[in-house]
Amino acid sequence: KLVTGSDDKTLRIWERKMGVVEVLHGHTDTVQDVDVSRNGKMIVSGSHDRTIRIWNAESGETLHVFEGHKDWVASVQFSPDSSKVVSGSLDKTVRVWSIETGELAFEPINVQIWNAETGNEILSIRNSSVNSVAWTADGTHIIGGRSDGVTIWDSHNGEQLRTWKADNRWNSNVALSPTRTHVVTCKVGDKTAFVFDISTGERVATFKHDATVCGIAYSPSGHFIATGCNDGKLCLW
């Protein structure tokens, strides 16, 4: 099965041979992002209506509606154990939600860092929309692609562990290596994927494509990176 979201405000569940088998209604604006839990029992969707919805994948019933973002929800993803959902928004926050309680696991991640000697601002997550979010394979960290860089947080308490600046084009996708030593990113409308060393923030590899890169993922071993493009091709690096 495949799940898609659309600017017609719906989600659609597809079967390979049958096409659309179910249409889910509930959002009042464009459905920007969707994800399916690892056990296949739940679907999460994020929308321009500023809400996150959890759906029963079998019945199509809405299980939870999470409210709190002040702008479009740009990215959503289940934790590896399917107990939480992380959401990134154009309101410049990352939020982690407990599926069991329907409440925030901790306060929204919204960080500013200042130089203690000069008083100058060094980094402000408040001034940068969060366009893509992802969990590490073991569920211990969250990585977020912002409009000007990449940040990694501790998923248990929201502590910011590492951040670095990139160019001004939005990061549309991010993926962290299983060893948590490297991150791969791609940007909106770009035909290139980049690999960064987390400890230094240095770019260590560049993968060029013939078409726009739409998706990226690490292999479980961390030895390979898969990229998918809008020309229908999948590349393994």
Automatic annotation (TrEMBL):
CDD domains: WD40. Keywords: Repeat, WD repeat. The keyword Mitochondrion does not apply. It comes from Paxillus involutus ATCC 200175. It comes from the Eukaryota. This is WD40 repeat-like protein. InterPro entries: WD40/YVTN_repeat-like_dom_sf, WD40_PAC1, WD40_repeat_CS, WD40_repeat_dom_sf, WD40_rpt. Pfam families: WD40 (PF00400).
